[in-house]
Amino acid sequence: EESASHLFFHCSKVLPLWWESLSWVNMVVVFPNHPRQHFIQHMYQSYEGLMATRWKWWWLALTWSIWKHRNSIIFSGSTFNTNKMMEDAMFLLWTWLRHLEKGFQSHFNHW
Predict the structure, then answer these.
(1) What domain range is 66 assigned to?
(2) What span, in angstroms and rounded, lies between the C-alpha atoms of 38 and 6?
(3) 14: CB partners within 8 A, 6+ apart
(4) Are 76 and 89 a contacting pair, CB within 8 Å?
(5) From which domain of life does this come (predicted)?
């Protein structure tokens, strides 16, 4: 049986998504073993401001994308597609930012 920790954070197929994401914001972390600790690490970090808020939303978007893609593999026989998973997470975050941030005007193709 697959654990939540492996599914979302430590699987060799999803771990590169997290490392890439962390490189965008020059963040270096050690991933905790338990999903709750992973959540706390990213939601209650000491960073403040717009980028910190966006990072928290990104964490949620990527985690949700991983969940949706894993379900699609299990229940619909889809194949694992890292690029699609990342694209879906980026689109989800972009959609949220359009509705949550006043003045967010970036077109998805330029984002």
Answers:
(1) 4-110
(2) 12
(3) 7, 8, 66, 85
(4) no
(5) Eukaryota
Number of domains in the chain: 1
Which residue, among 59, 53, 79, has the nearest Cα to 17 in the 3D structure? 59
How is residue 66 written in tokens? 């991983």
Residue for token pair 């890439």: 20
Residue-wise pLDDT for 27-82, tens only, equals: 777 777 777 777 777 666 666 788 778 888 998 999 999 999 999 999 999 999 99
Q: Which of 81, 54, 85 is nearest to 68 (CA)?
A: 85
CA 69 to chain centre: 12
Is the Cα dihedral 82, 86, 57, 99 positive or negative? negative
Q: How far is residue 69's CA from residue 30's CA, in Å, rounded to a whole number?
A: 24
Give CA torsion, residues 6, 14, 67, 73, to 10 deg: -100
Q: What is the pTM of this model?
A: 0.84
